[in-house]
Amino acid sequence: MPRYTHILFDLDGTLIDSAPAILASFRDAFAHAGLNPVIAIDESIIGPPLLETLQQLSGSTDTALIARLADGFKTSYDSEGYKQTAAYAGVGDMVKALREAGLSLSIATNKRIHPTRLILAHLGWLDYFDHIYALDLFEPRLPNKAAMIARLLADHELPKDSAIYIGDRSEDGESADANGLPFIAATWGYGSIAAEALPAHWQAAAQPGQLSDALRKA
After folding, report:
1. Is 10 part of the annotated catalytic residue set?
2. CATH (domain of 184)
3. Alpha helices in 109-169 (DSSP H)
4. Does residue 156 or residue 18 have the better pLDDT?
5. List 10, 12, 168, 172, catalytic entry
6. C-beta separation of 191 from 47 below 8 A
7. Which residue in 40, 88, 98, 172 is deepest, having the highest Cβ count within 10 Å?
């Protein structure tokens, strides 16, 4: 049996290219509010939770303004915007192969739970994942990704010595570290990690097929 039987995945930038959909909905939100963002709406903003990103884009922490922008984003994204999301080449085959190898797959994402489920259903992937976690899955909302991973592991009694986290950003690796999990960086995504800049205890995979092979043989 493979060493890692519980594979936890980030979503945006790891399994899916959600940038076109997310960026379009951020632009819609600012346009409908009659505001100009203070920084560019480009792929560099993808990854953090929605409210945090809106604070960065607006240059404000005003709760009423952020709530208005968040409502505009959700209206755009949750109706039609999410349908622009595409799987990275080879990812569908990868998750299918991992499931067929008898591995348990989970999602732990900063994306809101509602569009996460919409996207997984849109891609035909819902049946591949045993557990789907997001910061807003719980009330009160979980504070960060490290806490979310800890909650997922605890809720389902997943042994850390057989679990691993896969993501595309430094935050993902740091969240894995905080939970004592190994980490593999998916360097095909738009995250902030360059393979040559990885900490020595992190691994990297340049293609989904390479990652699938590594996980099934580990």
Report:
1. yes
2. 3.40.50.1000
3. 113-122, 145-155
4. 156
5. 10
6. yes
7. 172
